Amino acid sequence: MSDFEPPRSNPPKFREGPFTYHQEVEMEIATVTNLGEGLGRVNGWVIFVSGALPGEKIIARIWHNSANFSRGDLVRVLVPSPHRVTPRCDLFGECGGCQYQNLAYPQQLIWKTKQVSEVFTRIGGLTLEVEPCHPSPKQYGYRSKITPHFMTPRRADFPIGFLAAGTARRVIDVPKCPLATEAINSAYAKTRTEIRRHAHQYDRGATLLFRDCEEGVVTNPREVVTEKVGPIQLKFLAGEFFQNNPSVLEQFVSYAIELARKSGAKHLVDTYCGSGLFALSGARLFESVHGVEFSAEAARKAAENATLNRLLNCRFIAGEAESIFDNLPVKGSESAVIVDPPRKGCDEAFLTQLHAFGPRRIVYVSCAPDTQARDLKFLCGLGWKVISARPFDLFPQTRHVECIAALERA
Predict the structure, then answer these.
(1) CA–CA dist 63, 48 (Å, integer)
(2) Which residues are catalytic?
(3) Within a 13 Å sphere around the CA of 19, how many CA atoms are in the beta-carbon half?
(4) Which residues in 148-223 belong to E strands, given as ranges?
(5) Which of 47, 57, 163, 241 sees the fewest Cβ atoms within 10 Å?
(6) What are the boundaries of each domain within the chain?
(7) Which fold has domain 1-84?
(8) pTM above the 0.90 mark?
């Protein structure tokens, strides 16, 4: 048999580039991205490696070349970071839910602060000093809602769990999630057993729901549930959006309310108010509170929550996108506005109307610092100035971070 081994050929979909398919390279990790990937360079070429930490020397196996970067799998850590820890979950790295279980929690907070600061500078052109990320009292067992999936059952041990890291369709089997509450994991285990026992009844896959609330663990997305945040009770449908880390939620909401109150405003306006979380939490600190929602159903539920909490100074309006502030009976100069949009942020028409309303202070709450930075840049172009920004860690062990920024007229 010849000692000659022909070069490995690249798979058909593998793009030609500086590295061949599954070529192993030695590299140092300089930083982590906002997606939680380690970033390093080989001969100036950027390589992203999931699971690699800043300061580490590693071996990576290339599996993708793009026009100006490559991606690799972590094969071996040659020089580990002093902040590397053992993940609690055996599926870390395979399950796409977590990115930072291998990083000590104090360092997670440092990197989340740095990532917010970098995106504010790069996208927003902002030079302010971002305050340190506020920690979560619980780093595990904090999630009050999970939504596992399963595809059409085709074998006895079909997976029930979450999407695999880096994929959009492949589900891996996750028997237990260490981020979820104990009550959820207990209910989830029983449901998994029942689904497998009756697998023949499923013609297609499904997404499950487990929400840990005042009523216990609820699995019906149409069931009305109750969450308590400080002294405020909020009712909403189990399948609707609601922040999923109760251990830090009261601190998170109180911080935003306090920023609004310190402006000296008499009135609070809560836009994208949903079931009324910020509006109702701040009601006792202002003469009046007005919640604005694009959804008439959500505005109606927020009003019901005001009645539930015996708050008489709250009004909720289903606003039209073209005239979101027109029906408010208060002056902007006497008001503070909380903005809490979805991940895509605000459109320029909304921000222009917000500017025209002229509040004393804007408190912008965001789950996506990149779109937040874009919107802050637009507001600064209209004459506003960002006076503070503070990240909050509502999702320990993951790349996700919330941020609360305050703006005033320049």
Answers:
(1) 11
(2) 367, 402
(3) 26
(4) 149-150, 161-163, 171-173, 206-207, 210-213, 216-218
(5) 241
(6) 1-84, 105-139+247-409, 145-218
(7) OB fold (Dihydrolipoamide Acetyltransferase, E2P) (2.40.50)
(8) yes
DSSP 267-312: EEEEET-TTTHHHHHTGGGSSEEEEEES-HHHHHHHHHHHHHTT--
105-139+247-409: what fold? Answer: Rossmann fold (3.40.50)
Please tell me the distance from the alpha carbon of residue 37 to that of residue 47, in angstroms, as a whole number. 10
Q: What angle do CA 164, 391, 316 make, to 5 degrees?
A: 95
Q: What is the spatial distance between Cα 79 and Cα 52, in angstroms, rounded to a whole number?
A: 11
Half-sphere exposure of 269 (CA within 13 A, CB side): 28
**Residue 243, CA distances (Å) to 105, 107, 267, 271 in order:** 21, 23, 25, 16
Task: Report yes or no: 87 and 102 within 8 Å, Cβ to Cβ.
Answer: yes
Chain centroid offset of residue 44 CA: 32
Of 377, 292, 346, 333, the closest CA to residue 120 belongs to 377
Q: Is 115 helix (H, G, I), strand (E, B) or coil?
A: helix
Could you tell me if 372 and 364 are in contact, meaning their C-beta atoms sit under 8 angstroms apart? yes
Among 342, 401, 403, smallest CA distance to 36 is for 401
Contacting residues for 199 by C-beta, under 8 A, at least 6 apart:
153, 156, 158
Tally DSSP H helices, then E strands, for the chain.
Answer: 7, 21
Q: State the Cα angle at 322 between 387 and 317, rounded to 5°.
A: 80
- What does each of the 410 residues of the chain score in pLDDT, given as a tens digit? 334 444 456 777 888 889 999 999 999 999 999 889 999 999 999 999 999 999 999 999 999 999 999 999 999 999 999 999 999 999 999 999 999 999 999 999 999 999 999 999 999 999 999 999 999 999 999 999 999 999 988 887 899 999 999 888 899 999 999 999 999 999 999 999 999 999 888 889 999 999 999 999 999 999 999 999 999 999 999 999 999 999 999 999 999 999 999 999 999 999 999 999 999 999 999 999 999 988 888 889 999 999 999 999 999 998 776 688 888 999 999 999 999 999 999 999 999 999 999 999 999 999 999 999 999 999 999 999 999 999 999 999 999 999 999 999 98
**C-alpha 279: how far from its chain's center?**
21
Work out the end-to-end distance of the chain between its first and last CA atoms, rounded to an integer number of angstroms. Answer: 78
